[in-house]
């Protein structure tokens, strides 16, 4: 039997500590489009499906009292989520003007492309990577 092929990442799921704050951050500040928003009564949990222009999706979840996750840069697990942008400098400037701390822009030693990091309201590491 031939090996099946993974064709793309469908979504990345994020559990947030403050649903309203994270919803504003990802929709109003980063500009992601709401696909669906559902409240799951039995779990006391919101689920927000968000779309990027290329069809990739983020899911935001709220749960009562989620445990914190260690967030050191080299901790085991998902290291960061990277977004493609036309201009890292332009988007970094936009974030800074909206009160988001952005690391200095670096150049990828292998591709020569600019990139930088910032954090969502829960301190999750997010990256901007130039197309």
Describe this structure in words.
- It is globular, with a radius of gyration of 16 Å.
- The strands form 2 sheets. Strands 1-4-3-2 form a 4-stranded mixed sheet, covered by helices on one side. Strands 5-8-7-6 form a 4-stranded mixed sheet.
- The protein has 131 residues and is of the alpha/beta class.
- The protein folds into 2 domains: 58 residues, 2,3-Dihydroxybiphenyl 1,2-Dioxygenase, domain 1 (Roll), CATH 3.10.180; 53 residues, 2,3-Dihydroxybiphenyl 1,2-Dioxygenase, domain 1, CATH 3.10.180.10.
- Strand 2 and strand 3 form a beta hairpin.
- The mean pLDDT is 90.
- 16% of the residues lie in helices and 35% in strands.
Summarize the structure.
By secondary structure, the chain is α/β, with parallel strands linked by helices. It has 2 helices and 8 strands; from the N terminus they run E-H-E-E-E-E-H-E-E-E.
| SS strand fraction | 35-45%
CATH topology of the largest domain: 2,3-Dihydroxybiphenyl 1,2-Dioxygenase, domain 1
N- to C-terminal distance: 37 Å
- How large is the radius of gyration? 16 Å
Low-confidence stretches: none
General shape: globular
Which structural class should the secondary elements be placed in? alpha/beta
Record field, number of beta strands: 8
- Residue share in helices? 10-25%
Can you tell me the CATH class of the largest domain?
Alpha Beta
Which architecture of the largest domain per CATH?
Answer: Roll
